[in-house]
Amino acid sequence: MTGGAPAPAPPVRVGLVGAGPWARATHARMLAAGPETELTAVWARRPGAAAEVAAPYGAAVAGSFAELLDGCEAVDFAVPPAVQAELAVRAAAAGRALLLEKPLGPDPGAARAVADAVARHGVVSQLVLTKRYHPATRDFLRRAAAADVTGARSCYLHGAFLGGEFATGWRLAHGALLDLGPHLLDLLDAAVGPVAAVRGTGDPRRWIELTCEHENGAVSQASLSGSVRLPAARTRVELFGPAGELVYDTAGLDHEECWPVLRREFAAAVRAGRPGALDARRGLRLQELLHRALAG
């Protein structure tokens, strides 16, 4: 019997659902880069588009969603929220781990159905909250945990809804609240403290302003828009308190640093059978906060 380090775990075989710009630019490339994951197949309702996504990586094109499930251990979703919510429930019932986009679904009911299916079938789930996997974000949240925060201001702004391949139907219909809101509310909830109440003012398709009351008494505000012309997307969180100011700004972040971390942590969760904090339950909480903002 010989010693030495244990053999590395085999790559997690992942099937990708979707063939749009986000699937093509990020999801497929991330999964195929490995070594923790292997892109086994792509399925989309447009077979030709699925073939274009799969071809650079030698992945198969599944003829149906059922065929995709048969050939993988985990499913990665890069589709509109309503499609994700429907298919994720089926994938969970088949015992497949889920890599989920935000928002979890188009509304709280659909999001709850996904979270309930994940819990009922005991599968691993993880959210693609991209910025959360960047070292700078994690450093900010560590520092925020030690801060006494009185109030906070934040924004997530860009012009992608004004035109281009990311001005997709669901984004134009629902606006920045469903698309950008999960990112910013997640950061505020994590950095300032759990959000107890949230109110929204404005039009999510143009500009919406959120006011959050946190369980610790702090108050924060969030500005969201995908319809303003800027040189680059702007995400910024400013925390204020008796000890001074703590600022998180993504202007200098290389988002390419996020994907290897996301891939590695998802694969580790699948192999261990234990999800991290950014799972479907987190997605449901964010969805409920978004709904409260609209209702308020």
UniProtKB/TrEMBL annotation:
InterPro entries with a match to the protein in the record: Gfo/Idh/MocA-like_OxRdtase_N, Gfo/Idh/MocA_oxidrdct_glycsds, GFO_IDH_MocA-like_dom, NAD(P)-bd_dom_sf
Domain Gfo/Idh/MocA-like oxidoreductase N-terminal as annotated: residue spans: 12-125
Keywords assigned: Oxidoreductase
Any single Pfam family the record assigns to this protein: GFO_IDH_MocA
Domain GFO/IDH/MocA-like oxidoreductase, chain residue ranges per copy: 158-246
Keyword Aminoacyl-tRNA synthetase listed: no
Protein name: Gfo/Idh/MocA family oxidoreductase
Originating species: Streptomyces synnematoformans
